[in-house]
Amino acid sequence: MSHSNRKRASCGLDIANPTDLEVCITTGTHSNYEFICVPIVHTRYVYETHPEKFASKRNAPLTRADVILSGNDWGSYIVGRLDPRINVDSPVASLRKAGEEKLARELKYSAHLGIPAIMVKLTGTKHVNLARMLYNCVSKDSGPQVWVQVPIAVPDENKYEDTTNLPPKTTAEVTSWHWWNRFRLLANQNSRINICLEIGENLPEESDIQRWLGEPIKTLLFNTSVFLTNKKGYPVLPKTHQALLKRFIKLDLQIIVKGPARHGDISFYQQYLNFLYQQSENNDPLCNFARGFEDFLQIPLQPLMDNLESSTYEVFERDPVKYSQYQVAIQAAITDLVPEEEKETKVLTVMVVGAGRGPLVKAAITASKNAQRKIKVFAVEKNPNAVVTLQHRKIEEWGDMVEVISSDMREWSPPEEDHADILVSELLGSFGDNELSPECLDGAQKFLKPTGVSIPTSYTSYIGPIQSSKLYNEYRNSKDETRHPKAAFETPYVVHLLNRLELAPPQPLFTFTHPNPDACIDNTRYQELSFTINNDSILHGFGGYFECYLYKDVLISILPSTHSPGMFSWFPIMFPILEPLQLSKGDTLNLHFWRCVSKTHVWYEWSISDPTTTPVHNPNGRSYQIGL
Questions:
Q1: Do both 378 and 316 map to the same domain?
Q2: Catalytic site residue 281?
């Protein structure tokens, strides 16, 4: 069941009592369903619950024979459902043992058939032994994935479940999320155990829905009874359920339809779900740019230490928002620095430091034309490969207006008459300062006139707590023998965050201002932040963002609350933690964060002091540092 960039909804059909599997597959595929969910053991071969009469004592077969379908069909079209009557957590020892034997047989038969996934249903928090057995099953390298079927809200008949063995803070209200959370923790948050979220007629409150959006959901399950009938007799979801589905579709999941065809033909449900899927196809440039990169970990660029490749420049130059905002900022600065009466005589010096292949040079020239002011541009670039492009553009487009300087901005010394009125740079990383913009601009400000302007003028990093099993498993599984054993948990990653939950709003961390007036410049920083946790949850790390004022009130931002619409040059940054941390609603989470600087490197260290204390991550920059 691949998750390519498909343009239609991927739907499955849940069939309670399939009489003929081949007919079921044919019916399903003709109605555009991509797979069917069926019991692993045919209902005809019902288990006796009494251990003495258990199937292994009979000579009858366990279930239908594997030969009724080809291996390819088992592997492509079938998801197996475990018998819901199996109870491996029964307090009665004989029933528990009988359940264990049945479960083991169903799991072995599933592996034998080569089906891609098995479904198991949770009905409360008392599934400790079930979690253990399924964790043992997925810990082997082969075999099916597990889809844990959980209702989005606790059904009324489960509301009064015994809570004696739960932590005291959660006994007030046990949600179905607590069922899932206990199960996944017992199974060590294994990435092969995911959720099939059952959407009932009653939806929970907003905070609970948000919490599910941060979980590893593979499928949503809709019973046909949830659908209403429109004027033409076709099935439609209630407005609340439509809105819910559109939020989950972004996670690129599959949808299962269960129950009788109450509206004539089972294909109508698939057609309707596909229609909703098409409607939610996003035209946002950021979503289109990031497609395929959702929750994909990348090590941050170090453009100061490494020369960027042509393809990297090309990607960033496609951003429709960043350069237009820079142009607005440069134009405002030019207009402020040259009064109307001097526009024919005064020529401003604009220095673009870290010019790359020239997008900011172009923005400056366009800004000067719009402002009807004269400028001379110095394009300073240390990457000799990018300088080739700058020199060509000077010949073909810019002429004498631009002078190309092949040098590191920190080492170049222009004559005093060429000092800059405006110093323009785009050295920001996902965390504001993590591509060493402070160090570079502090080094370059020596050739800015006393009245000169820096664009950007200031930027602030923000950080906030995040839950994401998906990202936790990504960094947990990225082993590198050449690095420190804890390196995967001490390295910040650039990542387009999708399948995650914000546990509290991000807060401002470090601010840098340019030009920097301090006589003795110190770019080390330390800050302690306190977050109030908004839901029972698990902390997997911290998301980092930035807001940047280019000039006066011209803003570019990747902070979720002020994100520049359509800008895609930066994804957020993620700071992992060594051990996931269980949090309760209302907990105070205290984060300590350091920016450390040596003669050769810059690095971050971070630690938590409440509600529990963790070791400092990345001491001395042992796992991650940025080269000066």
A1: yes
A2: no
| 382 assigned to some structural domain | yes
Q: Are 103 and 135 in contact (CB under 8 A)?
A: no
**Which residue reads 């719009």 in tokens?**
370
Strands 11-14 and 35-39: parallel
Indicate the residue type of 52. E
Q: Is residue 512 part of a domain?
A: yes
* 450: in domain: no
CA 182 vs CA 153, 167, 587: distances in Å: 16, 11, 19
Residue 148: both structure tokens together? 């844990």
Task: Examine residue 384 and say whether the peptide bond preceding it is cis (omega within 30 degrees of 0).
Answer: no
Model confidence pLDDT, tens digit, residues 177-224: 999 999 999 999 999 999 999 999 999 999 899 999 999 999 999 999
Which three-class secondary structure state does DSSP give residue 165? coil
Alpha carbons 63 and 393: distance in angstroms, whole number:
72
- The backbone region for 372, taken as left when phi is positive above 0, alpha when psi lies in -120 to 50, beta otherwise, is left
**Is 452 in contact with 419 (CB distance < 8 Å)?**
yes
> Cα angle vertex 279, ends 272, 232, to 5°?
35
Please, which residues have CB within 8 angstroms of residue 446's CB and are 6 or more apart in sequence?
A: none
147 within domain boundaries: yes
Query: What is the spatial distance between Cα 392 and Cα 408, in angstroms, rounded to a whole number?
Result: 20
Contacts of 434 (CB under 8 A, 6+ apart): 300, 492, 573, 604, 626
| Per-residue pLDDT tens over the stretch 585-610 | 999 999 999 999 999 999 999 999 99
236 and 384 both lie in a single domain: no
Note whether 194 and 217 are within 8 A (CB). Answer: yes
426 is catalytic: yes
Distance CA 140, CA 147 (A): 16
Structure tokens at 394: 């000077």
Among the options 426, 439, 490, 547, which is catalytic?
426
What is the band of 170 on the pLDDT scale with cuts at 50, 70, 90?
very low
Domain count, the chain: 3
Residue 276's identity, in one-letter code, is L
Tokens of 524: 């080390």
Mean pLDDT across 465-473: 95
- Domain-ending residue, one of 279, 301, 318: 279
The region, left, alpha or beta by phi > 0 then psi within -120 to 50, assigned to residue 205 is beta
Q: State the residue range of the domain holding 555.
A: 462-627
443 close to 380: Cβ distance less than 8 angstroms:
no
Which member of 34, 100, 381, 435 is catalytic?
A: 435
Alpha carbons 491 and 342: distance in angstroms, whole number: 52
Prediction pTM value:
0.89
